[in-house]
Design a protein that fits this description.
By secondary structure, this protein is α/β, with parallel strands linked by helices. The chain has a single domain, classed as Glycosidases (TIM Barrel, Alpha-Beta Barrel), CATH 3.20.20.80. Helix content is 39%, strand content 13%. The protein has 15 helices and twelve strands. Strands 1-2-3-4-5-7-9-10 form an eight-stranded parallel β-barrel, surrounded by four helices. The chain has a two-stranded parallel ribbon with strand order 6-8. α14 links the parallel β9 and β10. α13 packs parallel to α14. The longest helix has 25 residues. The radius of gyration is 21 Å and the shape is globular.
């Protein structure tokens, strides 16, 4: 069967350092915001660490010591791209050092060399839901000096890995800062809107400065942003609901507007004014923001609805301010499954930015059970990804320029939202439970062989 996926389409998977590496204080690494959240993002509280306490992410799946085995499994599936992140605190343990930690740099040298050996292109996120706690104690992204610290970090890794890494991303799901400011910008719960948007502004400036540095140091490389693809529909056709959905979309995508267009959109400046939000934007900041990204990357797991009815919204909305869609089924964690939404989002982002797109997260978190033969027949995961990829192909036929697809969690990892192992995404099973018990043995699921076939056929074997 013919396929619309381009011949050079990049197929693979995506993970994050803090969810797979473990070795949380090994070889000079400093504490990060993720290390301080043993209950995950959804706890919405900073959980202080005490000696002897437990965080599943401290060991995670021990990728730090098992990366060669895991990358070999990814290569067996046929990956041409693997998205992961560098743990900032492995390179600058407190965040404000003048000189990097050589042991941290050497670890990623080995990881990227292993990928290269297997013919896998690294796509590297500079900051994926973690930053050094040393910087948090100095005000997080609310402190403008953090821009300089991030710039030093970015320059260090671009220079070190310029021959090994050609695809870069700045901040993971940068728009999540609106919903969880500690994770996004290192601010404590209860921070004011002005404080949060000032910190976001500093992060946007840092992102633009990293883009400039990447273009200078890795001239043949490409650097993009990364958005949480929170697709929303009006709950009804009432004009008020349609307007509310538009406003919510703008609130989420203004980050991309700044990163792709180089300036704040008028609607956001009005929002600041209408809500008495003060953001200090210097003339130099405006100049720095003009360094725009080469491509747009995003995650997509679910869609939701928005309504102007405050009573309905208050009673039903989730962390992303979305109301459940009555026409959709949900996963075991209440995430609504909407494959067609993938096509809608791809077209919306293409129409909005006219920049190449890259799907860097998409997958199904589910409870996997071993059958009597010790196998995992995860047909639900196969169906979920198949149906989304069918819509991806439709978007390509619509004229969307798409560089690649990396499924979220090709190997089981610790969930960011809930800090669970039981919420599994992988094509590869890892023997570890929520209490930290298990051998860490890797096992191929049924979906492993299915995805292998999809990659080998460049999408032509999808069930349409």
């Amino acid at each position: 069967m013919t396929t619309a996926f381009p011949k050079n389409f990049l197929w693979g998977g995506a993970v994050a350092a803090n969810q797979v590496e473990g070795a949380y204080l090994k070889d000079g690494k400093g504490l990060t915001t993720s290390d301080m959240q043993p209950k995950g993002l959804l706890s919405l509280e900073l959980d202080a660490r005490t000696p002897g306490d437990f965080n599943l992410k401290d060991i995670a799946i021990d990728f730090y010591h098992r990366y060669e085995e895991d990358i070999a499994l990814f290569a067996e599936m046929g990956f041409s791209c693997l998205r992961t992140s560098i743990a900032w605190a492995r390179i600058f343990p407190q965040g404000d050092e003048q000189q990097p930690n050589e042991a941290g740099l050497e670890f990623y040298d080995k990881v990227f060399e292993c990928m290269h050996k297997h013919g896998i292109k690294p796509m590297i996120t500079l900051s994926h839901y973690e930053m050094p706690m040393g910087l948090v104690h100095q005000g997080g992204w609310g402190n403008k000096e953090t821009i300089n610290c991030f710039e030093r970090y970015a320059k260090t890794v671009f220079t070190r890995y310029k021959d090994k890494v050609k695809l870069w991303l700045t901040f993971n799901e940068i728009n999540m800062a609106l919903h969880e400011p500690f994770t996004g910008v290192g601010l404590k719960k209860g921070s004011s809107q002005s404080e949060i948007f000032q910190a976001i502004h500093h992060q946007l400036v840092a992102s633009a400065k990293a883009v400039k540095l990447c273009h200078e140091i890795v001239p043949e490389g490409k650097i993009g942003n990364m958005l949480l693809g929170g697709l929303v529909y009006p709950l009804t056709c009432k004009p008020e609901d349609v307007h509310s959905a538009m406003a919510e979309t703008r609130h989420s995508l203004f980050f991309g507007d700044v990163q792709a267009r180089g300036a704040y959109p008028g609607y956001m400046l009005r929002y600041f004014k209408d809500n008495n939000i003060t953001v200090n934007i210097s003339e130099q900041d405006k100049i720095d923001l003009k360094h725009t990204v080469d491509y747009i990357s995003f995650s997509y797991y679910m869609s939701g609805c928005v309504t102007a009815d405050e009573e309905i919204a208050k009673a039903q909305a989730n962390i992303l301010n979305m109301v459940p869609n009555p026409h959709l089924k949900s996963s075991e964690w209440g995430w609504q499954i909407d494959p067609l939404g993938m096509r809608i989002l791809l077209n919306s982002l293409w129409d909005r930015y006219q920049l190449p797109l890259f799907i860097v997260e998409n997958g199904l978190g589910a409870i996997d059970k071993l059958d009597e033969h010790g196998q995992i027949n995860d047909t639900y995961r196969i169906n979920y990804i198949n149906d989304h990829l069918v819509q991806v192909e439709e978007a390509i036929k619509d004229g969307v320029e798409l560089w690649g697809y990396t499924s979220w969690g090709p190997i089981d990892l610790v969930s960011a939202g809930t800090a669970q192992m039981s919420k599994r995404y992988g094509f590869i099973y890892v023997d570890r439970d929520d209490q930290g018990n298990g051998t860490l043995e890797r096992k191929r699921k049924q979906s492993f062989y299915w995805y292998q076939d999809i990659i080998k056929s460049n999408g032509s074997n999808l069930k349409r």
